[in-house]
Design a protein that fits this description.
Distance between the termini of chain A: 17 Å
Shape of chain A: globular
Order of helices and strands of chain A: HHHHHHHHHHHHHHHHHH
Radius of gyration of chain A: 24 Å
Number of helices of chain B: 13
Radius of gyration of chain B: 21 Å
Oligomer: heterodimer
Mean pLDDT of chain B: 90
Number of strands of chain B: 2
Structural class of chain A: mainly alpha
Shape of chain B: globular
Strand order of the largest sheet of chain B: 1-2
């Protein structure tokens, strides 16, 4: 029985999705499945950081947002007027900023330590910042004043959004390199605090820099990732309509389900490849070394392992996986809505998935992703129903309204309690590490 | 060239708000640093503890208002504050008993307890949303201004007004009182000394017969009370939204780390460093400069280094600089 336990667990989760499909609708079930699969990929990424190396990052939402930004840059519609108004100049300003910081780092290493160096560098950075703003500001104003109702941004490359997936991973990896360089190797809480901050900055940038992604005005209409067609095109395609008609299905419903199935297949494929790679890595000498570092840093360092470098490496790989999932999510949704990048949804929910599933175990992360992903989204339709049933006997009035309103907030409380219970009573999670 | 007006504008836009905001941060950061030095973990639930306490202060304020009890020129919330503090203390003690004590007995790694504290954060956030919702609540009443800008202009004849809100003055006063009480407690009383001893060296403290559970309990009581006061003052000053307090975590952590995690003096100094940096970087300096140089020297710019949306970037940059160059903080924490 015991060896089939994991299979039973997965079967149970599958049953949840099937029940949702039968009792509610298959569209809803597949929708939840797709988002849950994306959460699984994020959970695998977090598990790489936490499960393999014991790195606690509270900035998952930043990687997810950077993935979304990659989709904007690669596959948003080009805005030639916006780009020519100030695109190159903005790019120049960013290059200037990068060079200025690189020079500061170089100077810091070259100059003699002391208060003169500190003062000189601070002055240099302040001057550099104002030069950067003088280059940047006119360009930003020019770009944002170009047709602000519809554009006002520099536009993307207009390429297929499948191409943005690896770019999302690369962006997240680059950010992880910077933050890892700074915060790794200090107390472990500092990584948690620093990542919390950088994630908040990334999301703030995306919310406010209209020239980049139109900020809170949202960007819509990204191209679909190859080979997913648009529902409207599918409904006009005879090769799709004939078999649908012969099965006696409604072409509109069938086309939406078809598209979602395609997404599910693509996400599933990515997940399978990822897990295969992770399992190979975990069972290789590299995996043993990484776990040895996690379990005892001092003795691994004594064996000649470069702990800081390995931590940085794992931190980057994990963030890249999360960035990949972020790009996949934005390209599926076809739009970027920066206010939706909430730390509770994308940082702490993913954490709950990893810990409930079983930290250190890839299958655990997947199970946690599917189960918690289903729970989180299903509460949206289950919560009000349950609350309606509970309050059915009450007379309508303030208390009933208040109780029904609270149903919407139940899931935070539930998630917190689930996390605390698992940490306390089953710290190894549903599928423990072998 | 009008130095006096420039000075008043500087006071009005930077110094007064900075002192008030710094005081609110200091009360929060003190709690974080105390919990760190005694319980040895970074408490991610602290922001939501503040929100939780404030939610109850608001409820009690409404109750008092409905009974017609007010504090005259002061906000009614001051009367409700003691009750709110009691509820917050009860909550953190219950959390400690149900959640944290288990990990303390196990001597779990600090990072595990940090994760546990995010779980507590979830629960508290959920409770706050259920109790008071997510919409904005304004619970400030009484006299709004301690120093009315019109009165100031009439009295001094300057073009620039200076305004001090009652809540701003209250924040500074509360921070000063709490700091005096706390430092007196830590330095002079037996319990305070046992707390410091425990935080310096746990094993030695245990050997000399200090009861760890008592030290932990007192730490929670102080941290909970400070959190409730800080949250209420921030809510009075800026109007209350339960979800805002999560984003106060970053400046509070930055303040605690700048001063040196575990050092109470450091937390207070760090809070003012963070608060004033935020204001200096995100204020529009055009008005102040306008008094100092001829008008046609300044162009159209606002002379604002960063927009106010990037406040978090300021506290983050301070945090990063400290982590890079002086990880033990100014006053040498742990």
């Amino acid at each position: 029985m015991a060896q089939y336990r994991n299979l039973w667990l997965f079967a149970g989760v599958a049953l949840l999705f099937i029940l949702t499909g039968v009792l509610q609708s298959w569209n809803l079930s597949l929708n939840i499945l797709n988002l849950a699969l994306l959460s699984c990929i994020m959970a695998v990424g977090v598990n790489i950081q936490w499960g393999y190396a014991g790195l606690f990052s509270t900035g998952i939402v930043g990687s997810v947002a950077l993935g979304g930004l990659a989709v904007v840059l690669i596959s948003a519609k080009p805005v030639p007027e916006g780009w020519s108004a100030g695109g190159p100049r903005i790019f120049g300003a960013l290059v200037f900023a990068a060079l200025a910081i690189a020079l500061a780092v170089w100077l810091y290493r070259k100059l003699k330590p002391g208060s003169t160096r500190a003062l000189a560098l601070v002055l240099y950075l302040i001057v550099a910042f104002f030069i950067y703003r003088t280059i940047l500001d006119p360009a930003v104003i020019a770009v944002e004043s170009n047709n602000p109702a519809q554009a006002g941004n520099i536009g993307g490359l207009g390429l297929n959004s499948l191409l943005s997936w690896p770019v999302g991973a690369a962006l997240a990896a680059a950010a992880a390199w910077v933050i890892g360089k700074i915060a790794l190797g200090l107390r472990e809480d500092y990584l948690a605090i620093a990542t919390l901050g950088i994630a908040e900055i990334i999301v703030t940038v995306m919310r406010n820099e209209d020239w980049l992604d139109r900020g809170v005005k949202n960007l819509i209409d990204f191209s679909r990732p190859w080979p997913v067609p648009k529902e409207v095109d599918l409904q006009l395609n005879p090769t799709f309509l004939e078999p649908v008609a012969s099965l006696g299905l409604d072409p509109v419903t069938a086309s939406t389900i078809m598209v979602k199935l395609l997404y599910a297949t693509m996400f599933g494929l990515v997940l399978v490849v990822l897990v295969w790679g992770c399992e190979r890595a975990l069972n290789s000498p590299w995996g043993r070394m990484v776990r040895a570092i996690r379990d005892n840093e001092i003795s691994s360092a004594a064996m000649g392992k470069d702990v800081k470098f390995r931590h940085l490496q794992i931190f980057i790989i994990g963030s890249a996986v999360v960035g990949l999932a972020g790009a996949m999510m934005t390209s599926m949704e076809g739009q970027l809505t920066p206010p939706s990048y909430l730390p509770l949804r994308f940082t702490f929910l993913i954490w709950v998935m990893v810990i409930v599933g079983g930290s250190g175990n890839n299958w655990g992360s997947i199970l946690g992703g599917l189960l918690i992903g289903w729970l989180y989204l299903a509460v949206e339709f289950l919560g009000p129903q349950v609350m309606n049933a509970i309050t059915a006997g009450l007379p309508s009035g303030g208390l009933k309204d208040h109780l029904q309103d609270t149903a919407a907030h139940m899931r935070l409380l539930t998630l917190g309690i689930v996390l605390l219970l698992v940490l306390r009573f089953a710290p190894k999670g549903l599928i423990p590490e072998k | 060239m009008d130095i006096l007006n420039a000075l008043v504008a500087f006071l009005n836009f930077v110094v007064v708000p900075g002192l008030a905001y710094g005081s609110q941060l200091a009360l929060g950061a003190l709690g974080i640093t105390l919990i760190f030095s005694v319980l040895r973990f970074s408490n991610f639930a602290h922001g939501d503890t503040m929100a939780f306490g404030t939610a109850f202060v608001i409820l009690f304020t409404w109750w008092f208002q409905s009974m017609g009890i007010t504090a005259g020129p002061l906000p009614t919330a001051l009367l409700a504050l003691p009750l709110g503090i009691l509820v917050t203390i009860a909550m953190v003690l219950a959390t400690d008993r149900v959640v944290y004590r288990f990990y303390r007995k196990q001597r779990a790694k600090p990072i595990i307890v940090v994760i546990v504290s995010t779980g507590v954060m979830f629960v508290m956030n959920g409770l706050v949303r259920m109790i008071i919702g997510t919409s904005e609540q304004n619970f400030s009443d009484g006299q709004r201004m301690l120093l009315n800008p019109q009165d100031f202009k009439a009295a001094t004849g300057l073009a620039e007004p200076l305004a001090i809100k009652t809540t701003q003055a209250l924040s500074v006063a509360a921070a000063v009182l709490c700091c005096i009480a706390l430092f007196w407690f830590l330095q002079k009383t037996r319990t305070g000394k046992s707390m410091r001893a425990y935080s310096d060296n746990e094993d030695l403290a245990l050997l000399s017969g200090i009861n760890p559970e008592r030290v932990v309990m007192i730490t929670w009581i102080i941290a909970g009370a400070l959190a409730c006061i800080a949250g209420s003052l921030y809510g009075l000053d800026k109007s209350y939204r339960g979800i805002v307090y999560f984003s106060l975590l970053m400046p509070m952590f930055a303040a605690a780390v700048v001063g040196g995690l575990g050092s109470p003096v450091g937390a207070v100094v760090g809070s003012f460093i963070v608060a004033f940096s935020e204001l200096i970087v995100t204020s529009a300096w055009k008005k102040i400069f306008g008094y100092l140089v001829p008008a046609d020297w300044l162009g159209d710019g606002l002379y604002q280094a960063l927009s106010t949306d990037y406040k978090v970037a300021v506290s983050f940059s301070i945090l990063i600089m400290v982590l890079l160059f002086r990880p033990q903080g100014i006053f040498g924490g742990k």
